[in-house]
């Protein structure tokens, strides 16, 4: 009987461990109905030649399902969504690179080796415990208990109500298996659905008939600030840090003779996968999973990049976080791509951040605008990554932008601040540094605007997504702020008809927020004379 109790509590603990993580490590005892069924079933296995093989097969399958459930729990904490095995396998490389950046190669090897060894040992341990050939012959009492576990567990999984409080029982393995099956079936129809949406959006040509005449004469910059979501503006503890910075943002714009309007857009992801937000905003299509992203690249419909090129702009991507080959950039059709390898930066990486935002803005002004902004106006999409986890160190924005140069001056910050391991050992400190990193990102953006925006230049800045639920809370909206800045008030006024408000603080209402996929059509409607003539002729 003691062996039966030990096996059940071990299997139950493994099955409910991911749920314990999802609940924020809240201590509570949950009974897994699958644990009851599994322990009941293996306890009824007869001795024999196949008993060992069956025991280890059940052990392997059980541990595999626990790993999937654990992955689902981590995915919900980090990305605010359920795991999708059909699409998320590709994230393993990103996780590996994140580990390399934060704990080094040796630490990564230790973590991965520990995971593999622990998994193997669990399979062996459970296989031995399940194997009836390694136990004494069971008495009627023990056999009866196994039978009760199997019947009661099976009834609960089937959906029959049990005389147990609902919050004390769970079916994590079955639930995630059903979810993954549903994901798989939905993904089978995703391509057809996406093609239909593409055709409704104008097909591969875009069918937008745009000239962007109303903004001709100025450069247009589209910047995505990492993890800048509405929670950072309106929720504590971040509001006390960000709201004063946004107020200062508005004051500095007025002082510099610049105008700003602000709004909100709904991002397709949370906590990561920022390329979905970039793709949705550029294409006018809702890209919320990797399959749709891959289909977008394969079908190659027109995007804002094409719209600007056709309107006579030179198109440039400035992506300091891209450290390897980026064929997606070629598919989007930029005239020039600047990634980590061809950005002349002499400073240090700051943990995951390859270069601070102020250098990125300085490089935009002193290199890209100097080289590419001579004969044609520029459209530049850029990623601002200083507010990317692990949010350490926090550095200041230099007042003397002329001294930034090749970034060598940032060497003084290479060994400052807590290490990622030290910072992430305290959840409250993580929250504090997240808010401070966004304050830095906004301050750097404001500095660029007040120093370098001229005439009919337009700067569009928005968040790529909200931070992970462990920062924002599980029920946070996926909305992100968006700011549009220019000296020319006539460029901004039409945006007020599309939900934008005057000033640097976005509206606090989260009702009826449009998705990032609506931005392209709105932008073309507002700034293309051909749109007005088309509407008049119709």
DSSP strand (E) fraction?
5-15%
Radius of gyration: 27 Å
Q: What structural category arises from helix and sheet content?
A: alpha/beta
Classify the helix fraction into a percent range: 40-55%
Mean pLDDT: 85
Number of helices: 21
Using DSSP, what is the number of strands? Answer: 10
Taking the sheet with the most strands, its summary is: 8 strands, mixed
Question: How would you describe the shape?
Answer: elongated
CATH architecture of the largest domain: 3-Layer(aba) Sandwich
At the first level of CATH, the class of the largest domain is Alpha Beta
The CATH superfamily of the largest domain turns out to be Alkaline Phosphatase, subunit A
For the terminal residues, how far apart are their CA atoms? 82 Å
CATH topology of the largest domain, by name, is Alkaline Phosphatase, subunit A
Unreliable stretches:
532-538
Question: What is the number of independent domains?
Answer: 2
As laid out across the biggest beta sheet, the strand order is 6-5-7-3-8-9-4-10
What's the short version?
It contains 21 helices and 10 strands.
Structure characterization notes:
- The protein is an alpha/beta fold and 538 residues long.
- The chain folds into 2 domains: 2-187, no CATH class; 189-537, Alkaline Phosphatase, subunit A, CATH 3.40.720.10.
- The protein has 21 helices and 10 strands.
């Amino acid at each position: 009987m003691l062996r039966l109790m030990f096996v059940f509590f071990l299997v139950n603990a493994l099955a409910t461990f991911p749920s314990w993580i999802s609940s924020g490590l809240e201590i509570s005892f949950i009974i897994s109905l699958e644990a009851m069924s599994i322990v009941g079933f293996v306890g009824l296995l007869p001795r024999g030649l196949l008993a060992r093989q069956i025991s280890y097969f059940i052990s392997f399958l059980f541990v595999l399902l626990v790993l999937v459930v654990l992955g689902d729990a981590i995915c919900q904490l980090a990305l605010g969504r359920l795991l999708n095995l059909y699409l998320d396998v590709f994230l393993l490389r990103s996780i590996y690179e994140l580990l390399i950046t934060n704990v080094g190669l040796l630490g990564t090897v230790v973590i991965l080796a520990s995971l593999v060894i622990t998994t193997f040992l669990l399979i062996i341990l459970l296989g031995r415990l399940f194997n009836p050939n390694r136990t004494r012959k069971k008495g009627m009492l023990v056999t009866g208990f196994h039978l009760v576990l199997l019947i009661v567990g099976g009834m609960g999984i089937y959906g029959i109500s049990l005389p147990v409080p609902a919050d004390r029982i769970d079916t994590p393995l079955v639930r995630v298996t059903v979810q993954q099956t549903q994901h798989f079936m939905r993904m089978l129809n995703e391509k057809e659905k996406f093609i239909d949406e593409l055709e409704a959006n104008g097909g591969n040509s875009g069918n937008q008939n745009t000239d962007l005449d109303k903004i001709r004469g100025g450069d247009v910059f589209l910047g995505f600030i990492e993890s800048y979501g509405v929670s950072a503006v309106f929720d504590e503890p971040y509001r006390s840090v960000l709201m004063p910075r946004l107020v200062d943002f508005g004051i500095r714009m007025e002082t510099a003779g610049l105008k700003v309007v602000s709004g909100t857009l709904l991002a397709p992801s949370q906590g990561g996968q920022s390329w979905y937000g970039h793709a949705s905003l550029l294409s006018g299509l809702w890209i919320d999973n990797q399959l749709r992203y891959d289909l977008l690249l394969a079908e190659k419909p027109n995007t804002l990049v094409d719209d600007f090129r056709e309107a006579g702009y030179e198109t440039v991507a400035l992506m300091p976080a891209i450290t390897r080959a980026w064929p997606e950039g070629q598919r989007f059709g930029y005239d020039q791509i600047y990634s980590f390898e061809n950005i002349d930066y002499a400073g240090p990486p700051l943990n995951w951040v390859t270069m601070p935002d102020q250098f990125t803005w300085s490089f935009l002004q002193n290199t890209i605008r100097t080289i590419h902004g001579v004969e044609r106006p520029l459209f530049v999409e850029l990623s601002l990554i200083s507010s990317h986890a692990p949010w350490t160190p926090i550095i200041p924005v230099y007042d003397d932008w002329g001294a930034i140069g090749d970034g060598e001056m940032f060497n003084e910050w290479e060994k400052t601040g807590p290490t990622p391991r030290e910072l992430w050992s305290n959840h409250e400190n993580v929250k504090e540094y997240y808010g401070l990193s966004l304050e830095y990102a906004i301050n750097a953006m404001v500095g660029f605007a007040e120093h370098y925006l001229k005439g009919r230049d337009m700067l569009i800045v928005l968040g790529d997504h909200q931070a992970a639920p462990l920062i924002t809370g599980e029920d946070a909206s996926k909305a992100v702020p968006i700011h549009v800045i220019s000296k020319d008030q006539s460029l901004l006024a039409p945006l007020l008809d599309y939900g934008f408000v005057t000033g640097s603080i976005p509206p606090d209402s989260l009702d009826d927020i449009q998705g990032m996929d609506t931005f392209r059509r709105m932008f073309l409607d507002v700034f293309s004379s051909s749109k007005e003539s088309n509407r008049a002729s119709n």
